[in-house]
User: What shape does this take?
Amino acid sequence: MDKAVAREMKASGIDLVSISIDGPEEIHDGIRGKGVYHKVREAFSYLQNAGITCGVNTTVIKENIDHLEEMYRDFIHFGVYSWQIQPGLPEGNLAKHPDSVLDLNDIKRMVEFSYVKNKEEIIKILLA
Assistant: This one.
C-alpha cells in the first residue's frame, strides 16, 4: 500500500476499506509478523488521505481480549469509522491453539464491551 495505490482505489469507486488488527502493536506483530502493525498504520494514513473511510476487523482471542479498551482508544486516534469484532473459533490456525479460544465469560465481556462503546457513538462496533 502506498499513496498511488490508495488514490487508484478511490478512483475505482472504493469508499471503505477494513484492515485486520489483532491487538496493540506487540500482540498484533506477534500474530501477524514483526513490523506489520506499523505498515497497517501507514496504510490507514494513505487511505484516509485519499478520502477512503477505514474500518478494522479483530478476531478476539485470549491474548487480546484484555486489550479491547486500549485498541478502542487507538482506533479513535487512527480515525477508524467501524470496528468488527468476532470471537476466534477453534478452526484453522486456532484449532492448533485451543487455549487461545474464548470461553463463555470472555464472549460475554466482548458483547458487553461492544454494547457500552456503541452507546458512545464514536466508532461503530459490529459483532460477527
Observations:
- The first helix runs from residue 3 to 11.
- The radius of gyration is 15 Å.
